[in-house]
Amino acid sequence: xxxxxxxxxxxxxxxxxxxxxxxxxxxxxxxxxxxxxxxxxxxxxxxxxxxxxxxxxxxxxxxxxxxxxxxxxxxxxxxxxxxxxxxxxxxxxxxxxxxxxxxxxxxxxxxxxxxxxxxxxxxxxxxxxxxxxxxxxxxxxxxxxxxxxxxxxxxxxxxxxxxxxxxxxxxxxxxxxxxxxxxxxxxxxxxxxxxxxxxxxxxxxxxxxxxxxxxxxxxxxxxxxxxxxxxxxxxxxxxxxxxxxxxxxxxxxxxxxxxxxxxxxxxxxxxxxxxxxxxxxxxxxxxxxxxxxxxxxxxxxxxxx
Length: 305
Hints:
CATH superfamily of the largest domain: q2cbj1_9rhob like domain
Mean pLDDT: 89
Radius of gyration: 20 Å
Helix content: 10-25%
Number of helices: 6
Distance between the termini: 63 Å
Structural class: alpha+beta
Strand content: 15-25%
Shape: globular
Low-confidence stretches: 121-136
CATH topology of the largest domain: Jelly Rolls
């Protein structure tokens, strides 16, 4: 990050990285999304998850939905070269991918603005949904001794252009440092006409990325643009912090590099330390053994019937 970007992020709580994705990458991400939607049982406008729940009652551990299962460009996004330097500056060494999902909106499914986050100033806030350091949460933000400290940083990759006042990502710029809770009457806006003037709508081109701290009050403006808004969210934390209680198991995804595997490790104060790797390797081995035993048991039961 250069001096202008650091100033802008500290001031507003977000940055737009132009051309974070090549045209070929945007097409590949869109094509894989279309394939997944074609296989869905019903029209889908959301994939992935915040990894706080399982897909169904029969899902085994670590099976919380993830777009990493789609492989290819979706695994490339884990440590994209155009984004990694920003994350390094904002989160420090050994940051980790915590969860991922994609949202889509169109004329029939425009969504509504629900502002959440904010109130992470020195005095904290009192609003019921604040999740900052003052109430034991992890969506904090502060800057000290020349270094950024963030609890959860989101990267929104845009697959389609979002023009002025069309919808998509919006935030209350600067609210990551505010000392008061967001007024309740500003929190929800079912239409664009209801949106408070204090909310900034961010216009972006296909291939751009928006990086923001979750400590900044943010949400999605109801869609009024042509076609469809397609925004991929990859969310990162420092190595000792987690939003989701459901961690990634790198064994479930193909084609990962060693660096990507380390970024999928569970949180710990050690980070990707030899002690942590040894513990997690044993957990993964036992998980694989359990799945194999369940498959064998299911086969035996199938034969007996």
